[in-house]
Design goal:
The structure holds 3 protein chains of 3 kinds. Chain A is built from 12 helices and 12 strands. Chain B is built from 10 helices and no strands. Classes of the chains: A alpha/beta, B mainly alpha, C alpha/beta.
């Protein structure tokens, strides 16, 4: 089966104080239909910009290079009108902050139906019925009343469900979710994770799930890629990457994660902080913080190579099994 | 979610106002500053720059501008050019004094009202309401009339009229700053009210007040001239620009009598406005604006 | 007597024309020097309000807050009482808790000034010491907050609190605005400081995993009340309150196994209209008839373990909610 989304050599440069700064430096991945593909990284890693580039939502002055094939069509080269048609209909996005991603002055019903009517040309009655169906799919209690209510009357978790409902209104084949649960409490987050899992099983929906929270990816992603300073450092299946990480950064991230059931020892923190796009170290971007760095790490940017059933970008590969 | 900012390494300290350099990049500010500087020089050196005694009357009344009298003479034969130069010694310092007094009084009262709230706040606010109930020029006229005409009383009257605006602005600034977390933190550390006000609140209030005050100097000069125009401020034979314009309106055919003092007012007010605008731009980017790197 | 004690504290917020909202509806906590108490709960549970009441930023409507034996009087517009200066607070947002227009050295040194360290050289020396203690270079004292990252700013905020030579520091979600690396670093710093300086820390967080690593004791808060307290390891091995159990089950594990976290049905109710009886009963899988009618109070069921739940009665050995519920069902069934 051909991939739902295939990204190759994606580069994104943004204007900053007079010059262009590279925030995404040549990344590539493929998302199969119906799978959940996770993008893991901290702030400054380029993870959000890489998907904003796909949807044509970069800030003014941003430059993009590379290819992003969505069902065979290159999103980066489509005329704006074509791209707008695809976005919202075949490709949809959910953002982090449910407070700002819903229009505060329109009722939920209006936001749902307007979307559906614009893209699918449904009449009002059919659109309303579809809106009710969607609210039921995302398990909003009392959908009838919810249609006439406004966003501020809902909690953060409910708003995020509504945002997901709007995103899925036209039955897209790919959903991009950028930190969808970061702003939510942990029990609410659990509900959203389960919702996304159920929806993708029922609808065969592919999801690109971006988050800094490796636990969330561990729960729901099939494959994932770890971003650092605009590049992918490790990618592969969830079990391989999270169960037996090979890249020192991935290891470091997992070790720094507190885990409610782990014995109480000091957290192993990675020294320093992720670099800002303007100050990416030469060679391997992680080398200044890496306990295993060698002289070669400073010389050349490591290439993402297939190694033992995963992709790894590391000159040293310190955890290679002997 | 989280934001990562400046790297561990050295970063430019952007909080010190880049005033000279930045303002240098803006033509309007340069023009304004140059004009004000020029007028200040004139004000100081008027006795040396003026070709004639501003009060000296002569037989050559209503003389048109010539090489002898650059701006002509007025109805009493006095040299308009010299009078305009000497006028700077009245309008500029008094305009500045007016603003400084109003800002100081208004600032202190407004600051106390905003910080301590309660009874103080009530009294100060009701007083400002009272003053705001009257149009500025009317109130100034009333006070000057009550105290008697003259420049000192005119300045006093205008200070009374002007301080409430500053009180209002400072009060609202202080209200918002006083509730900020860093002020709470200082108070939790046991800092006295006075120290908190001076160390934490004041630096955040000074910027906007400075901008307001600079823009207000032009206004002050205008009001002062207005009062003098009405005969309530400067009294004859003081060479104040406003009263000179008043005389000029009586002798329209001798256009130089009123026009040149009018141009002087215009240029001074404009100059201060230019400076105030560029000051505002300098102070605005100061407020912490972290670049949210949502990557 | 603990360094910081809260007894049945109630905090209300006024609303125009309506009943006041009880953000905290009777909570008790004790913090000893050298120990870290974690207070966990989700949005709307009142933990931030409790933090503010604990240091005197808001006045309790009922109950008492005592620090080193003195009553914590709320901070009005005047100066804070001298005997309370050793009770400090670190705020959640490291961007808004530092004055953007003052150098950080000055801000850290503020407490020193209050404590009467008059000479500037003496203050600079102490500020340099404090910066080192929190892992920042002494040269940082001359810089402004915007020159630092979130994690570094939070260290500055901690240094500022340390300058007051506190006995207890309350930290309101100190790690929430930080990314993973910074979180781990600051969490370790807090543990070290508590140990080395004999500091009592009240660490408020929604992140159970961090609290697990750092705290000695944990209190769980729901809708304005504390529902369970226990030593950390005991809490995680055997949570007694159904809400604690749900909270722990909802945290996803980063082990690659693909297990979905367990979700809790329903939503946190509006604090102005809490459910009758046990506040958690509408969402509780084990709710009893009694839970709908009467609100349980915190009772000690084992040394150091308290829980407010009708499943757990004093005198019986502690056991997980499912076991207790099953036993009660057996007792209720005839024969």
């Amino acid at each position: 089966m051909s991939p739902q989304l295939e990204v190759e050599g994606l580069e994104v440069r943004l204007p900053g104080s007079g010059e262009l700064v590279t925030v995404v430096d040549g990344i590539g991945y493929a998302v199969e239909p119906g799978e959940v593909f996770g993008i893991a990284g901290e702030s400054g890693s380029g993870k959000t910009m890489s998907v904003l580039a796909l949807m044509g939502l970069l800030p003014p002055g941003g430059r993009v290079a590379g290819r992003a094939l969505f069902e065979g069509r290159d999103l980066l080269r489509l005329p704006p009108r074509e791209l707008r048609r695809i976005c919202g209909r075949e490709l949809a996005m959910v953002f982090q902050d449910p407070m700002t991603s819903l229009h505060p002055m329109l009722s939920i019903g209006t936001q749902l139906t307007e979307h559906v009517r614009r893209h699918l040309g449904l009449d009002r009655r059919t659109a309303s019925a579809r809106a009710l169906e969607l609210l039921g799919d995302v398990r909003i209690p009392d959908p009838e009343r919810a249609l006439h209510a406004y966003p501020h009357q809902f909690s953060g978790g409910m708003r995020q469900r509504i945002a997901i409902a709007i995103a899925l209104a036209c039955r897209p084949r790919l959903l991009i979710a950028d930190e969808p649960t970061t702003a939510l409490d942990v029990t609410v987050q659990a509900g959203i994770i389960r919702l996304l899992d159920r929806l993708r099983r029922e609808a065969g929906l592919a999801i690109v799930l971006i988050t800094h929270d490796l636990g969330v990816l561990s729960a729901i992603a099939d494959r994932l890629a770890v971003f650092y300073a605009g590049r992918i450092v490790e990618a592969g299946g969830r079990e391989e990457i999270l169960g037996t990480p090979r890249h020192p950064y991935t290891r470091g991230l997992l070790d720094a994660l507190p885990h409610p059931e782990a014995p109480a020892q000091p957290l192993v923190a990675i020294a320093g902080a992720p670099p800002t796009p303007r100050h990416v170290p030469p060679g391997c971007a992680f080398h200044p913080r890496c306990p295993y760095a060698e002289p070669v790490s400073r010389e050349a940017v490591p290439r993402l190579m297939p190694v033992d059933g995963r992709l790894l970008a590391c000159h040293v590969d310190p955890f290679r099994p002997e | 979610m989280s934001t990562t900012l400046a790297p561990e390494g050295p970063a430019r300290a952007r909080l010190r106002p880049r005033w000279p350099r930045q303002a240098g990049g803006q033509p309007l500010a340069v023009i304004g500053a140059t004009l004000v500087a020029a007028w200040l020089v004139v004000a100081v050196l008027a006795p040396y720059l003026a070709p004639h005694d501003p009060l000296a009357q002569s037989a050559e009344a209503f003389a048109a501008p010539s090489s002898e009298h650059l701006f002509g003479t007025d109805e009493l034969g006095r040299d308009v050019f010299s009078r305009v130069l000497y006028g700077a010694r009245i309008s500029l310092p008094l305009g500045l004094l007016l603003v400084v007094l109003a800002a100081a009084i208004g600032g202190i009262l407004g600051g106390l009202a905003g910080y301590f709230r309660g009874w103080t706040d009530g009294v100060v606010m009701r007083t400002t309401d009272l003053v705001f109930a009257f149009p500025a020029i009317i109130l100034a006229m009333v006070v000057t009339a009550a105290l008697g005409p003259g420049l000192t009383n005119a300045v006093l009257a205008l200070v009374i009229v002007a301080w409430p605006s500053y009180a209002r602005v400072v009060r609202s600034l202080v209200l918002s700053v006083a509730d900020s977390e860093y002020v709470w933190a200082t108070r939790l550390l046991g800092s006295s009210s006075r120290r908190t006000l001076v160390r934490e609140v004041l630096p955040n209030v000074v910027g906007p007040v400075l901008v307001l005050a600079t823009l207000d100097v032009g206004n002050a000069i205008l009001l002062l001239s207005g009062l003098s125009f009405l005969g309530l401020g400067a009294q004859p034979p003081d060479p104040e620009w406003g009263s000179m314009v008043a005389t000029g309106t009586q002798f329209f055919q001798f256009w130089w009598i009123g026009t040149f003092p009018g141009l002087a007012i215009f240029s001074a007010v404009l100059a201060f406005n230019f400076i105030g605008d560029s000051l505002r731009d300098v102070f605005d980017p100061r407020t912490a604006r972290e670049s949210r790197e949502r990557m | 007597m603990s360094a910081l004690e809260l007894h049945d504290v109630v905090v209300e917020y006024e609303r125009r024309g309506q009943e006041p909202i009880r953000a905290v509806a009777g909570a008790s906590i004790a913090v000893d020097r050298g120990r870290i108490v974690g207070l966990v709960g989700e949005s709307g549970c009142g933990k931030s309000t409790l933090a503010r009441a604990a240091v005197g930023m808001v006045a309790p409507a009922a109950g008492a807050v005592r620090f080193e034996g003195h009553t914590v009087r709320p901070l009005g517009r005047g100066m804070r009482a001298r005997d309370l200066v050793r009770l400090q607070l670190v705020f959640q947002n490291p961007f808004s808790s530092l004055n953007p227009r003052r150098r950080i050295g000055e801000q850290i040194g503020e407490a020193l000034f209050v404590l009467g360290v008059g000479r500037r050289s003496e203050r600079s020396r102490r500020v340099a010491e404090l910066l080192e203690q929190v892992g920042l270079p002494a040269a940082a004292a001359g810089r402004y907050p915007h020159e630092f990252s979130g994690g570094q700013r939070q260290r500055v905020a901690i240094a500022r609190a340390l300058a007051a030579e506190p006995a207890v520091i309350v930290l309101d979600e100190p790690l929430a605005s930080l990314d993973a690396s910074a979180q781990a670093q600051i969490a370790n710093l807090l543990s070290t400081l508590a140990r080395e300086l004999e500091l009592g820390l009240l660490l408020i967080s929604h992140d159970l995993a961090i609290v697990r690593h750092v705290a000695d004791t944990v209190a769980v808060m729901y809708l304005g009340r504390i529902v369970e307290t226990a030593p950390t390891s005991a809490l995680w091995e055997t949570p007694l309150h159904p809400y604690t159990e749900a909270l722990i089950g909802a945290v996803p594990r980063a082990d690659g196994a693909g297990t979905l976290p367990t979700a809790l049905p329903g939503e946190v109710p509006d604090p102005s209209r809490p459910p009758a009886g046990c506040r958690f009963h509408p969402r509780c899988p084990y709710a009893l008839a009694r839970s709908r009618a009467e609100e349980p109070t915190l009772v000690e069921v084992a040394p150091g373990r308290e829980v407010a739940c009708w499943l757990h009665l004093p005198g019986e050995p502690p056991a997980p909610p499912s076991e207790k519920a099953a036993r009660l069902a057996r007792q209720a069934a005839p024969g």
